[in-house]
């Protein structure tokens, strides 16, 4: 009985500890640390490689998730529209053991099939996703360069209709970039959306 | 004849059990806030979500174990409304008899925070509402059967 209670207590402690770990994530206004991850062309990519950009659209995404797939074309459109000033940095953090679809080889395949105009990086150690506190795919972080700092300006979804891009009425990322360009305050700095939980390595 | 009638009755019950009501957020919101003597265990899942499918049997076990002890399990599918048949088929395949609804809302930002302000939006996620709605606990994680069992047990000693 005592053992049972101890186990119960331990499990509850575990739950509380996991919640604390999650809350240490980047928030709007935080300065992010640069990273170096492998692109589908086998070259290493860092944020500092994009010397002429004004910022970045960092998207945690993957191959297998239906929501990520639903937003794939919209991510391509973001790159086509903003690639010169706010390039899309797509990052797949999923554990390929749990989701073979999300392996580096399959990322290469997907990038080729869809002719991704953006970099699609493999967060093999999952350290970047952990640093950001990303929890799901797709999960967008809009980052603005401020001198030598990279500051998060928006976190959340691309728009407000995952099923049908044409039926969306709020375009959070596009509106946030428009506000930054106009030197105005971003009206919606954070949104929530359902996504596939990132599969962490055990 | 008797067995014929019985089998019709049985099929009728099966259909009721396997049915999935498609609802909008206000219906679910009302359910969450309802004050009664039941503990509500509300799990958000989808057929495409592998960890969700893996933990559904745990919720079913808790449903079976506690259904006569004032614990109500509600499984909220976040599949597209057009996928209702797929949802039904997967419930049947997994022998799920707990109540299932399909939340047909695409504008997530309008309701996720109202479930719980700490929910980032990943699933599986589970909301547990105490009797008479005096407190809520929210978990954005997967449960093992023993974790879930212990949690429900601690609320319903």
Cα radius of gyration of chain B in angstroms: 16 Å
* Overall helicity of chain B: 40-55%
Reported CATH architecture of chain A: 3-Layer(aba) Sandwich
User: Stretches of chain A where pLDDT falls below 50 for ≥5 residues?
Assistant: 15-23
Report on this model:
The complex is a heterodimer of chains A (202) and B (157). By secondary structure, chain A is of the alpha+beta class. Chain A has a single domain, classed as Glutaredoxin (3-Layer(aba) Sandwich), CATH 3.40.30.10. Chain A contains 5 helices and 9 strands; from the N terminus they run H-E-E-E-H-E-H-E-H-E-E-E-H-E. Chain A has a 7-stranded mixed sheet with strand order 2-1-5-4-3-7-8, with helices on one face. In chain A, strand 3, helix 2 (66-82) and strand 4 (88-92) form a beta-alpha-beta unit. Chain A starts with a helix and ends in a 5-residue tail after the last strand. In chain A, 37% of the residues are buried. Chain B has one domain (18-155): Glutaredoxin (3-Layer(aba) Sandwich). Chain B has 6 helices and 7 strands; from the N terminus they run αβαβαβαβαβββα. Chain B has a 6-stranded mixed sheet. The radius of gyration of chain B is 16 Å and the shape is globular. Chain B starts with a helix and ends with a helix. In chain B, 31% of the residues are buried. The model of chain B is unreliable at 4-15 (pLDDT under 50). The interface between A and B is medium-sized, with 34 and 29 residues. Strand 9 of chain A pairs parallel with strand 5 (122-123) of chain B.
Summarize the structure.
Chain A has one domain: Glutaredoxin. Chain A has five helices and nine strands; from the N terminus they run αβββαβαβαβββαβ.
Characteristics of this structure?
A: 202 residues, Glutaredoxin, two-stranded antiparallel sheet, 5 helices, B: 157 residues, alpha/beta, six-stranded mixed β-sheet, 6 helices, 7 strands
